[in-house]
Design a protein that fits this description.
Blueprint: H1 2-36, E1 39-54, E2 57-68, E3 72-78, H2 80-85, E4 90-94, E5 102-107
Antiparallel strand pairs: 1-2, 1-4, 2-3, 4-5
């Protein structure tokens, strides 16, 4: 009788646990990878995209297109406040251990 009750419960809970655990594992992995990365580059472009989510509500997305020294381009997502701190042409540096880059000089 106990098997009839607990088996369906286990069939539902185990996959849910694996999905939740996998999601958190992915988030931790991405944060650790971002913190291990280090580079310098130049802000090539500032991009602000807007997406309508409801009739009068919008989501705003801010990112920088950065030319990494010797390694191509990369898009860096930022908050609105951080986005305003950078200008096209700024030299920026992402130090190992930090999540976001910092401005090292103004326009070249």
């Amino acid at each position: 009788m106990k098997l009839v009750i607990f088996l369906p419960l286990l069939v539902i809970l185990i996959p849910m646990f694996l999905l939740v655990f996998g999601f958190f594992f992915l988030i931790v992995k991405l944060v650790v990878k971002a913190k291990q990365d280090a580079w310098t580059g130049t802000v090539l472009e500032k991009v602000h995209n807007t997406k309508r989510i409801e009739h009068n509500r919008f989501e705003h997305f801010y990112y920088l297109v950065v030319g990494i020294d010797g390694a191509g381009e990369r898009k860096i997502g930022l908050s609105a406040q951080m986005y305003e701190d950078f200008q096209k042409g700024d030299r920026i540096e992402k130090v190992k251990g930090d999540v976001y880059p910092k401005k090292i000089t103004g326009k070249e």
